[in-house]
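REQUEST FORM: STRUCTURE PREDICTION
Request ID: SP-0412
Submitted by: Lab K.M.
Chain count: 1
Length (residues): 195
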Amino acid sequence: MTAVDDRPVPDVVEFFENLEVPEGYRAELLRGDIVMVAGPDLVHNRIVQDVQDQIPRRAWDRLQTQDIAIRGESSEPQPDLVVLERGAGPAQGRLLPAEIITLVVEVVSKTSVDRDYGEKRSIYAAGEVPAYLIIDPMAGQCMLLTEPTGKGEAADYQVERTTKFGLRVQVDLLGVELDTTEFPTLPGITRHRRP
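STATUS: Completed
RESULT:
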């Protein structure tokens, strides 16, 4: 005879929201999976700081590691930077609705390559986030994705523009050109298999 565990399966979103994350780690809910990663390194933090400093505060809220809610998804990603019109978000709370976000930024690390270029690309497109900027210090490039389309795992961005570090990234939705000349890279790391 086979033993069956008939205890009710907890709702993953409720479980995630009550999860106690160890110090030095952060957790994200991505399509029903809880992903826990170590805190970022200095290269990552300096890139995020540089991007944030180039986006005018008077017009845009620039929020680091803000959890966002994606309608129709079992996902609560935590992008490295979230940009929305100043004052457009709620006054309090843990989750920011994806529909009010203009841009999300992810800085690629050795352990986040597939999530940032693959799963999160689909999740942010499904949430209709107008622009997604992937900054890759291993490849020395930025990839700006715009014009989201589709639903669920089939969602994607229609426009993809790649810019090498040292050149400017035109982010029309924000009315800014990001200077990438001071973005640090991660030397000595084997190039990943993504673009």
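NOTES: The chain has one domain: 40-179.
Reviewed by: T.R.
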